[in-house]
Amino acid sequence: MDHPVAVTQASFLWVIPALPLAGAVVNALLGWKLQRALGRRAVHAIAVAAVVASFLVALLFFTRMLGLGAEERTLHERLWNLFTAGRLSADLAFSLDPLSMALVLVITGIGALIHVFSIGYMADEPAYWRFFCYLNLFVFAMLLLVMGDNFVVMFFGWEGVGLASYLLIAFWYTDPQKAAAGMKAFVVNRIGDFGFLLGLLLLFWALGGAWTPRPAALRNLEYQPVPELGAFAAATDAAQAEALAPLVEGVKVGPTLSFRELRDQIAVEATGVRARLDGATIWGLPVLALVGILLFVGAMGKSAQLPLYVWLPDAMAGPTPVSALIHAATMVTAGVYMVARLSFLFALSASAMGWVALVGALTAAFAASIGFFQYDIKKVLAYSTVSQLGFMFIGVGVGAYWAGTYHLVTHAFFKATLFLGSGSVILGCHHEQDMRKMGGLGQHMPITRWTYLVACIAIAGFPVANGFYSKDEILWKAFTSDHLALFGAPVPWLGPAIYLLGILTAIGTAFYMYRSYYMTFTGSYRGGAAGHDGHGVDAGHGDGHDRGHAHVPHESPWTITAVLAVLAVGSVLSLFLGLPTLWTGVAPAFERWLEPVVAEVHFREAAHGTEWLFQLFGVLAATVGWLSARALYKDGRSQVPARLKERFARAWNVVYQKYYVDELYDLVVVGPAVRLAGLLSWIDKRVVDGLVHLVGAIGRLVAELDGAIDRYLVDGAVNAVAFGTAGLGRSLRRIQTGHVQTYLYGALGGALVVVLLNFLIR
Amino acid sequence: MAITLAHFLVVGALLFALGLVAVATRRNAVGVLMGVELVLNGANVNFVAFERYGAGGVAGQVFALFVIVLAAAEAAVGLAIVLALFQTSKSIDVRQADLLRE
Description:
The complex is a heterodimer.
Chain A: E1 7-9, H1 15-37, H2 40-67, E2 74-85, E3 88-96, H3 98-121, H4 128-147, H5 151-169, H6 176-206, E4 210-213, E5 221-224, H7 238-244, E6 247-248, E7 251-252, H8 259-267, H9 273-279, E8 281-282, E9 285-286, H10 287-302, H11 311-314, H12 320-329, H13 334-341, H14 343-346, H15 350-371, H16 377-398, H17 401-428, H18 441-444, H19 446-460, H20 466-479, E10 485-486, E11 489-490, H21 494-521, H22 543-546, H23 558-573, H24 581-584, H25 589-594, H26 608-633, H27 640-647, H28 649-656, H29 661-732, H30 740-760
Parallel strand pairs in A: 1-2
Antiparallel strand pairs in A: 2-3, 4-5, 6-7, 8-9, 10-11
Chain B: H1 5-25, H2 29-55, H3 59-89
Helix pairs in contact in B: 1-2, 2-3
């Protein structure tokens, strides 16, 4: 990757995100009317059609991309300029390269399936149109995020999915708990986004350029690249820089927001950008590592990594299809996508890579351990998602970008299956989410059961389904990576340590997934009449649905089971994308697909025998987890779990209460924030309002004074003139008597005076 | 003793002064009009006298005739006003005729 990206211009890329946007707009504006006039069918027809059409268009572009050479698979379309500041400009531009293509297919494909699923799941929802409007809006924002050609468009999508996520988590907003969960997700994401922005601005700063005052009379500032950058060395003024700057070996040099331009600048040595970035420091810290870590803070928020994962389990308050689409398959993987997209940047800094991988590994282990003892089926899946996201970050952290992204794809399949399966179960049990009140559902809901089992096999890591191939590749790459560093110091043992953490997590993953499977589908049904005490988080809105049903679990409608079947088949078939080199002798299809767009990282060479052994370890880990879950939870007969719970009650409680992290947050962050808000409110009310009132009173006083002056002084003068004139008139009218002779006296007197004057003044 | 210009002028001035006094002091409107006649005729004497002793010709005499015509017209208008005044207020006392006030 030492040459610029070859760009293929394409038209109508915009159609892919525009279709869901159109669906969202139509349902937002007309949805409620359509629902009343034509029924729910019209509403979901629009929404599903929009996403399916989007998927088909994406497929068209996919086939076109297959026809291009591996190095030319960057489709690009520029719509219009968003803003230009000096030499920097940002366009509304879309690009599809193998990486974003994979994401687009997952988003629109699995998104379409989940839309179909929602038809059955949300059938009783009065605000049906609102739900589909939000779902379409989400798909639109997510497509913007992955298709954006530059940071600006990506950030639009980044914030857009945050908004859609908030709207959908708090979908049943009349329940304060759910509304609070929505707000929590939004606020925690804000914290991450702040880090993301900081990283972005720091990167922008490091690329060179300074705000310098323009000469002449113009008052605004102009953005100019600093002259130290090789390209501008000979330039002495702005005009010369303009003439010299544009291209170095066909690459535009200088501050840019476009991923491709940034990548080209770094990839082409002659631009000097890479040397500059390598040497750049801020306050003594290497800028590259700082940029990587700050960008990853954004990913932590969006992708629920330690310590910003707390919003994701609460986000399960939203409808289950939302959990599947947004909080498992797509949105939460945005952070992984971002790291993979910026792989050329992360690959430059061993410290940033080590940081990403370490946080990923810790999150994977931490979240998996919480998942052990949860009883809410959606909570188990939520913590499992956090844990699997940790795996993805291990992958993209150690530099196995294709493996991380592949895990993203496989996870999208099996986790969507699991979530939708849990949705089917919840629907079948009349909105019960507590696994203690389920059991034996296998007889009542066969399709749900088998698809759930397939997904469990996939996530646990048995080689018959896709999860094994991605997870194993990630862990193997982690084990063979010796290039990681932490805080600038190389830590060669970090890779194996992460591997160890990962393989332990894999055991845990298999354990808690099979636990949920056995608790839900085997044994005898424990729900019945007692299941309706409103225990589940989701129970509040289900009242209307319960009426007219016997209290027996039932299989879900075909829209749900068909989607489950398709996803389960996908969970198996997608394994062919990642068949390891060890087995076939050629690189996995997905690796070859992504190879032109992600950075290359060198891993330690290891013997084939070792790799076989590690694959065996992976299967062993899954088997251990599976068998222990089987022994403890199959058919709900074993008393061991209860006894263990008694024996280690304290430890069990700590884990069950999720290590009291939420309480810790309440104590450390929320509490002080609320108290600070109270203090500020007090200051606002007493001090600020007092000041405002004081200013107001002073103003009023001045006004009254001014009024008095106006009334008495100004008006007085005007009135005095008027009264004076009137008085003068009154006194003068007396000499107009009407007697002609009086006037004659006047005239004679006047004449006399004239005569006398004539004599006196000579 | 020859009669000179000065004699005529004295007569004219006397006529003028007497007329003015009559206009200014008479209460009777008709009296006032008669005073005006005196004033005009005082002026006539002067015209004729200056013509006879000064310039020579007939311009003065002609002018005097004009003044007489004018005086006749003035008297006619004046008497009409007096008549109207009398019909309005049953009196021709100029002290009481103050309708022009305001």
